[in-house]
Design goal:
The chain is built from eight helices and two strands, in the order ααααααααββ. The protein is mainly alpha-helical. The protein has two domains: 64 residues, no CATH class; 75 residues, Arc Repressor Mutant, subunit A (Orthogonal Bundle), CATH 1.10.10. A two-stranded antiparallel ribbon has the order 1-2. The two termini are 31 Å apart.
Length: 146
């Protein structure tokens, strides 16, 4: 997903600058590293990528609109959301799924999740456990459908 986004924002290849190519390379390697080692700290990520923390931060801020820590957290929230929406959790609850994806401060996790998805993670899980039932937010109003 990130690779396609980077291609879109970098412009046409013949117009790409050396800095643009370097940023694209850093972000692609950053994304690959988050897939294989999702729990590395930002300092260690920078070392593995061979860039300074400042360079990584500037690159992420410019192309992703957030720092590397924020992006890693966003990705983890997406993974939790996908997991909670799936029907094959094997009885795992929200806390267990959140911990699997690196969240330990569950109050902060729930606040961030709600800010991103407009509902608590328990609501997402409950809705997924009732096939055929659904709801969505229309502005601030919850609309149910079946």
């Amino acid at each position: 997903m990130l690779h396609a986004l980077i291609e879109c924002v970098s412009g046409r290849p013949e117009e790409e600058t050396a800095t643009g190519r370097r940023h694209r390379d850093i972000l692609a390697r950053f994304e690959d590293l988050l897939i294989t080692e999702p729990f590395l700290g930002i300092a260690r990520i920078s070392v593995v990528l061979g860039v300074s923390e400042r360079s990584l931060w500037q690159c992420c801020k410019k192309h992703l609109g957030m720092g590397p820590g924020g992006y890693r957290r966003y990705r983890a929230l997406e993974q939790v959301h996908r997991a909670l929406r799936s029907e094959n959790l094997g009885g795992a609850g929200v806390s267990e799924v959140a911990r699997r994806h690196g969240f330990h401060a569950l109050g902060h996790f729930a606040t961030d999740y709600r800010a991103l998805y407009g509902e608590l993670p328990s609501v997402t899980l409950r809705r997924a456990s009732r096939p055929g039932k659904g709801e969505f937010l229309l502005g601030r109003q919850r609309v149910k459908f079946s």
